[in-house]
């Protein structure tokens, strides 16, 4: 079995394919990271402060968030990717382990991001759509030759994240779904969007009220999750799996308020897009003919570097570059310019025959490239144009030219080990094909063993422990297994994906909300849970998970509820400018239904349920207390 795995890994390393899909995955995945860090920074006081704005967390956390944001930006644009990927992984591990993100603000999203961030360290994602490629071009090119970095990657670089981050997750989730009654009834995709705490602002009632459709979706999801890991390796199944998975996760984004998880999963589907589709997409958006011809001094190092930079970003093929020394003759507009002046600037001809020079050439380049047009428009503004022209003139007049004739060669300067020690270590570690095969195979075996441990522990031992006595040996095995899960959970993101199961929804028949009175005495809803019972923007993602999965559940505890009511009222009260030295919030409750089988028009029924006041949350002189009237929260 292990020998067969090594053969498959070796075949995956031997087959080379374009890296564009891997680059698209890196950008999409990094954008998810980027937006999540912005979310964390916005809610930093709610998430990290023991009591928001009163008992503050260390400000170093806020600084680290900003550093992490810069790291994510480097991943998006592909700048020093290897270092940025390592730093990003370390940040995920540290923040998940040492902050409340693990227990209080976790909904399974962090484990997906940790696991894929670990893989990102080793994947050759810099070979497409990256600034690292541009850095190599600039460093290795000469006046005579243009260096083109390797844009091919082993096909296994596509397979690994799909198998580990998607395939194993789906298989584990599918196994757990078989233990849930409402999933076995075909209602798995129907129930969460009918529960106010989980539904999005988009009213999906027309679809939710079609029982056969919802049953078809529910059973299709289970089948899809079981077969994905075993079928995506084969080309005929990739496009059907791509469409099914994309629809599946787009539905999550649209119908539930846990959009970060949906977008993170969708990012991985860039790796299933057929290479020919990327080629067709590139061809569809590229101009058949360049919109601008730019003439440059072939013997000017600065001009050559400028050409390399512009060509790297000219994804639409809008600009054609020609050397003045070899292509200027025959152009009427250029023939009239003395040679001494001709070599001082970049010149451009558009399709209408208009000639541009100096800064105006750069403006036309930006406009012709399409997506960079706003930069060109800004440079045309009075004042900015004059200032930009002054800067351009200073640089252009001070540039150096190579005057040693046609045979002059500027030697390339390769990256040295001292300049990039991390890349040097990476090359040494994966020096030979045999070493790569051995290490990848061992890693896959380790990941599979850790995932099986997690699945068996929670899918078999945990379920069995609820109904039968597993004995002393079983309890010892359970402790060992749990210790291993803690390790795999932290460092590889391998965790049980038993999310939104029957043991979470069963008995979840009451939800809570908060109101306050404005200075005029009018009762207003805290911008957290609205009158429908929905968590409103931006309280989605991990904040929704905190409230709907930890604070308010089918098994509420008054102490835990008081803790999170304190955090929510302190955060939003301060954001609203309320005086928390003497403030009062009304705690409201209403009943909802979460049946394990079909109930027509349930979304509207749950929204329409009336609220009742059950107590108040009081802030007085910086102290908080929860007062409930004749309601036993723990008995609900």
Would you give an account of this structure?
- This protein is α+β, with helices and mostly antiparallel strands.
- Among the domains are: 20-137; 298-398, no CATH class; 507-635, no CATH class.
- 56% of the residues lie in helices and 9% in strands.
- It has helices spanning 2-14, 20-42, 44-48, 59-77, 81-98, 109-122, 131-140, 156-177, 181-184, 205-208, 211-231, 235-255, 259-268, 275-285, 301-313, 324-327, 332-335, 339-342, 359-368, 373-379, 384-398, 421-429, 433-467, 471-492, 502-505, 542-551, 558-575, 602-608, and strands at 16-18, 152-154, 292-296, 319-323, 347-350, 355-357, 510-517, 523-525, 582-591, 612-620, 623-628.
- Strand 5 and strand 6 (355-357) form a beta hairpin.
- It is globular.
Can I get a quick summary?
With 636 residues, this protein is α+β, with helices and mostly antiparallel strands. It has helices at 2-14, 20-42, 44-48, 59-77, 81-98, 109-122, 131-140, 156-177, 181-184, 205-208, 211-231, 235-255, 259-268, 275-285, 301-313, 324-327, 332-335, 339-342, 359-368, 373-379, 384-398, 421-429, 433-467, 471-492, 502-505, 542-551, 558-575, 602-608; strands at residues 16-18, 152-154, 292-296, 319-323, 347-350, 355-357, 510-517, 523-525, 582-591, 612-620, 623-628.
